[in-house]
Specification:
With about 80 residues, the protein is mainly β. It is built from one helix and four strands.
Length: about 80
């Protein structure tokens, strides 16, 4: 698909995980924020949108991994 990337991670033990993606546009190694929200693209498993009332945390972003699984993460630009 155009505008997408795929990453394969192998040999992960069963457990509870969450996925977080940062498009570090200026390559400074950190999440740059405006007033409160990030100004670079971010994405979390189980999230299609992010806002002041819909802030991600591990509990909401996590999933159980017991076998091979595909996770789609939407990178959101504020």
């Amino acid at each position: 698909m155009n505008g997408s990337s795929t990453i394969t991670i192998e040999n992960i033990p069963s457990g509870k995980y969450a996925v977080n993606i940062l498009h570090d546009e200026n390559k400074n190694g950190k999440i740059d924020k405006g007033f409160i929200l990030p100004i670079e693209g971010i994405g979390f498993s189980n999230f299609q949108s992010i806002g002041l009332t819909n802030r991600p945390n591990f509990s909401k972003a996590s999933f159980e991994l017991k076998e091979n699984k595909s996770i789609n993460v939407k990178v959101i630009y504020m």
